[in-house]
Each structure stands twice: as structure tokens, then as C-alpha cells.
């Protein structure tokens, strides 16, 4: 079992990354974690989903957005977060179901896509890909967040 | 498909446990007020999670293999808000609103098989 808190640097633990320190097109290193039935259930409870999972071809599968709590870890492992970050937008594309009954090992990586300023706010946009340990693409995401200077 | 979700500091805290963050903007009301908000902020990904629940209710488990959601957060969500998620399955237009209006707008669709 890998809880997001096990792998995600958290605000206040180390100095947060300054906007100027994000490097466009920088690769975000591989991140491995395991989504267990307990994580699937706890996530579903946190968003008012079905903790038992969803019927799919005779199996129970997770809300695919169970990956969401791990999303920022892809960025924060290389660029620790500053306090006060606010999410502006997100894209998720789902490709492969995640079991609600057995453990699923996920391998994620990503890339800083761009940094930009708009209306006095400083934004960082990065992409992430999530695959199974066997290499099947599970989901892709693009996140844009703004961080205080 | 339309569904309501009640947001309280307890639900924000619960999401924070699984999310594993310590961003005080979600937990420290005084800090949030210093930043110009009327209280702590719900996690954007929590509201996006509500949208995913409604998408699965609408599209079934096709959502797990062919779902795409693009969201823009337009207004914060605070403890005490009721968020109504409304998904039009013919267009994929999804709006999450509180008492002040839209808080998140999105397109939630299935890719062609």
C-alpha cells in the first residue's frame, strides 16, 4: 500500500520551490506506487463515490480519479511545494481500469510543459502519465496550478 | 445527471488525509482570510472527484477506459457550500456550482471506441 502521504513531499517540510526555479521541459522522474483496495475505498468515501467499487466485466474497479491524490506527487518529488498553491485547471484521460479488489502497481512520470504569468499570477503547467508495471497506459493528466511568489 | 455534494471542513479534512497534503490554505481559516478568501478552500481535486462520480453514474464503467475530463476551476469552494454537479451527457458539458454560481466548468466525454 502506498498512501499519497508516503511519497508526496508536503508543504512546510522543506523549502518550497520558487516560480523561477521551475525548468520548462524538465523531465519529472519515475514514481512508483501501489494502489490497494483500502486506498480505493478511502478515496471513494472522500468524494462520495461507491466504496465497494464499480462493476466492470465481472470485476470491481475503482473510480479512475483515485489517481488524483498522487498527481501532484509527480511534480513535488522534484519540485517541493510552497504553501498556498491553488489549482487552476486539469485534464485527465483514462485508458485502463484500476482494480478495487487487488493491488495495482503504478509507474508515473511527467514533464514540466510551461511556466507563464497571467493577470499577475504565476502558473506552472506539467503533464503526467500513469502506467501499470506491465507498461499499460492507465491515465494521462495535465495540471496547471498557481503558486504564491 | 445532477447530484449534490455537501462540503464541510470535515469533508475537506477527510480528503486531505487521502490526499496527503499539508497546504494550510485548506485547513487554516485565518491564513485563507489573509489570502483574501472567506474561509478555507476545498481541494480542487476533491471537487473534480465529485465530477468523476457523476461521470461514472452517467457513462458507466466506459468512463474508466474512455473517459476524458478537462476542468477549469473558476471560483473557490468553502466549508458550508453545497456543490451541485450537473452533467449533460449529450454534450459533455459539466458544471459544478455553489450558491454563488459556477465553481468549476468542464467537458466530460467518452472517446470513440
Folded structure, characterized:
The complex is a heterodimer of chains A (149) and B (113). Chain A has 149 residues and is of the alpha+beta class. Chain A has one domain (21-146): Roll (Thiol Ester Dehydrase, Chain A), CATH 3.10.129.10. In chain A, 15% of the residues lie in helices and 41% in strands. Chain A has 3 helices and 7 strands; from the N terminus they run αβαββαββββ. In chain A, the strands form 2 sheets. Chain A has a 5-stranded antiparallel beta sheet. Chain A has a two-stranded antiparallel sheet with strand order 2-3. With 113 residues, chain B is α+β, with helices and mostly antiparallel strands. Chain B has one domain (2-110): Roll (Thiol Ester Dehydrase, Chain A), CATH 3.10.129.10. Helices cover 34% and strands 30% of the residues of chain B. Chain B has helices spanning 9-19, 29-34, 44-59, 62-66, and strands at residues 2-6, 67-73, 82-87, 93-98, 101-110. A 5-stranded antiparallel beta sheet of chain B has the order 1-3-4-5-2. In chain B, strand 4 (93-98) and strand 5 form a beta hairpin. The radius of gyration of chain B is 15 Å and the shape is elongated. The two termini of chain B are 22 Å apart. In chain B, 43% of the residues are buried. The A-B interface holds A 3-6, 8, 10-13, 39, 42-43, 45-49, 54-57, 61, 63-65, 68-69, 71-73, 81, 83-98, 148 and B 5, 11, 14-15, 17-25, 31, 35, 41, 43-46, 48-50, 52-53, 56, 61, 63-73, 111. Strand 4 of chain A pairs antiparallel with strand 2 (67-73) of chain B, so a sheet runs across the interface.
Amino acid at each position: 500500500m502506498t498512501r499519497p502521504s508516503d511519497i508526496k513531499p508536503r508543504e512546510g517540510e522543506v523549502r518550497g520551490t520558487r516560480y523561477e526555479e521551475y525548468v520548462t521541459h524538465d523531465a519529472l522522474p519515475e514514481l512508483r506506487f501501489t494502489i490497494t483496495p483500502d486506498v480505493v475505498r478511502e478515496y471513494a468515501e472522500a468524494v462520495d463515490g461507491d466504496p465497494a467499487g464499480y462493476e466492470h466485466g465481472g470485476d470491481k474497479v475503482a473510480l479512475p480519479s483515485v489517481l488524483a491524490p498522487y498527481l501532484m506527487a509527480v511534480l513535488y518529488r522534484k519540485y517541493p511545494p510552497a504553501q498556498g498553491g491553488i489549482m487552476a485547471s486539469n485534464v485527465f484521460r483514462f485508458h485502463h481500469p484500476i482494480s478495487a479488489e487487488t493491488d495495482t502497481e503504478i509507474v508515473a512520470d511527467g514533464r514540466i510543459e510551461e511556466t507563464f504569468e497571467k493577470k499577475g499570477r504565476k502558473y506552472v503547467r506539467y503533464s503526467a502519465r500513469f502506467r501499470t508495471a506491465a507498461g499499460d497506459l492507465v491515465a494521462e493528466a495535465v495540471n496547471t496550478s498557481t503558486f504564491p511568489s | 445527471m445532477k447530484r449534490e455534494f455537501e462540503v464541510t471542513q470535515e469533508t475537506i479534512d477527510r480528503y486531505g488525509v487521502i490526499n496527503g497534503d499539508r497546504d494550510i490554505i485548506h485547513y487554516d481559516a485565518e491564513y485563507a482570510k489573509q489570502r483574501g478568501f472567506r474561509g478555507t478552500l476545498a481541494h480542487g481535486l476533491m471537487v473534480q472527484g465529485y465530477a468523476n462520480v457523476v461521470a461514472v453514474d452517467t457513462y458507466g464503467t466506459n468512463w474508466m477506459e474512455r473517459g476524458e475530463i478537462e476542468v477549469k476551476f473558476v471560483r473557490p469552494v468553502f466549508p458550508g457550500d453545497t456543490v451541485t454537479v450537473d452533467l449533460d451527457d449529450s454534450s459533455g458539458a459539466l458544471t459544478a456550482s455553489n450558491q454563488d454560481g459556477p465553481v468549476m466548468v468542464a467537458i466530460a466525454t467518452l472517446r470513440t471506441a
